Amino acid sequence: MRWFKFGSGKSKAPEVDGRQQALVDDVRVRFGPHQPGTFREQADAAVPFMAGDDGILAAAGVLREFADAAHADLWQQAANLSRRTGYAFPVDRANYRPLWRDAEGDLRWPLFELPCRLHPYIHVNAAATVLAGQAKRVSKVTDPYQAIAHVFEILDLTIDGWEFARVRPDTDGATLAHRLIGAGRDLRAALSDEPPLPQCVRELMRRNNTVDVYDPQAPRIVGGFNPGKEMREALLA
Questions:
Q1: CA-CA-CA-CA torsion for 93, 11, 52, 19, nearest 10 degrees?
Q2: I need a surface site. Which of 141, 143, 149, 208 has the fewest CB within 10 A?
Q3: Is 105 left (phi over 0), alpha (psi -120 to 50) or beta?
Q4: Rounded to whole angstroms, what are the CA distances from 148 to 22, 56, 80, 160?
Q5: pLDDT tens-digit profile of 152-209?
Q6: Extended strands (E) in the chain
Q7: DSSP string covering 136-193
Q8: pLDDT by residue (tens digit) across 127-153?
Q9: What 3-state class would DSSP assign to 87?
């Protein structure tokens, strides 16, 4: 990851049956901010719980549930903002960046408190790691294009938080972004027909900004992370 040592075809419809939903629910309860351990430790510990085909479907389900909840929250915020201002604020899941720019600081970044009780730095991190590690198998058991769309949707929201919503980019956030980029790379590479990169990713890849990365427990910078550079190296290779 670039933030360490800074300065020195046909697809199947996704189906989550009772077994896989139970697995999602188990991971939700076993891991989270309510449990001991750092976010990174918990994310790594959650990965083995999502093994095999059921685990792949559970991981895809985590990303879908999280992305759907984030979209619902932002859609409601945008609707409320439209009622107050009289202006339309379109909500495009393939590219949230125009919404954040147009709202000019009037949106709340919701990813830490979604009603689905999935945490971005724990459950989403683990799910992205599972899908990346089983990328060639993903298309056999679920819709890889939808999984890729959710990966990039959450990556977009993660970086939007840093840029527009005053979310402090710490090592946990940088790790999530790194793993989402890796998942997007591996899932696309496993397909014979790679889907086009969404506009939000293409916009970020044209930039070369390094973001200061903080210690989660202290107000000190411990590294830097260049999302555009990492995306170019991962997704244009």
A1: 80
A2: 208
A3: left
A4: 23, 13, 30, 18
A5: 999 999 999 999 999 999 999 999 999 999 999 999 999 999 899 999 999 999 999 9
A6: 211-214, 221-225
A7: HHHHHHS-HHHHHHHHHHHHHHHHHHHHHS----BHHHHHHHHHHHHHHHHHHHT-SS
A8: 999 999 999 999 999 999 999 999 999
A9: coil
